[in-house]
Specification:
Layout (H helix, E strand, L loop, with lengths): L8 E5 L34 H30 L17 E10 L7 E2 L5 H5 L5 E2 L15 E6 L13 E5 L4 E2 L2 E5 L3 E6 L5 E5 L9 E3 L6 E4 L4 E8 L6 E7 L4 E3 L5 E7 L2 E8 L5 E8 L4 E3 L2 E4 L2
This protein binds copper (II) ion.
Length: 305
Amino acid sequence: MSGPPSSKVATSGLLLKGRPGVGFLRVSRSRLPIPERIERMGSSMKNRKLVWMFSAVMVLVLVGCGKKEEEAPTESATPTANTPAPTPIDQSTVGSVTGKISFDGAKPKQQRIMMDQDPVCVQKHSGTVFAEDGGVNDNGTLPNAFVYVKSGAEKYTFAPPSDPVVLDQNGCMYKPHVLGIMTGQTLKIISSDATTHNIHPMPKDNREWNMSQAPGAAPIEQKFARPEIMVPVKCNQHPWMRAWVGVTSNPFFAVSAADGTFTISGLPPGTYTIEAWTATFGTQDQTVTVGPKESKTADFKFKAT
Ligand SMILES: [Cu+2]
């Protein structure tokens, strides 16, 4: 079941239209019990009965304090740590959306990367290195398009996968160049280079940070609390290094491959707005209705800007 791809394109352009993407559910913090005050003791302490009651109240206070210590780290870790239980999804009914990101027009001239400032970076490459952004595959399709469910999945709650998403630094380039991750999922940053990197995500809606990673240093693990399309990542040591992180509140995303194709699977039956983001050629939306066990097609065509 696949309709004419181009007719499905609802909007295109650099700006996202309509609703501001997937929403983030804020979870109110649990209120801790307030210990009762014990004001009148004085002479009543002589009374054995009151002494016993005082002891009992102190036990309650101590229990309350213990609970507070248990909950504090959870609250401070990340806002998504307290998300409600995942919505059960009938896996026997899920479908998928697959498609191709094509490109119309002359292949843009790609920016050449000069790594001369760091010989360690140069040594990892044998030929000319080009920036990934603006790159077109040999078959006229686009790699590194981030395709995700922009709306239609809000009624579900998803737990982030326990497996981390790995971002490697190899030859002073980020591998992969574009990646998707769920809110609350761990981004594990590793280095395959014998030089020091400084990883610096520059989000609008998440916490900004930058951390140095020397050769052989332990992986850096971080999480994103809120959905954000897209978070640029740079290296403060090597100005050409660039990655893009798509943070979503659902697991329905993919990055177009070296043949321009993508597949988003595990979709419960429903109508979804699928968005394809590119670093250079703008963003496009399509509305796709996926029936039980259906595999729908959503092709996108971008033009030179
Ligand atoms: Cu670097």
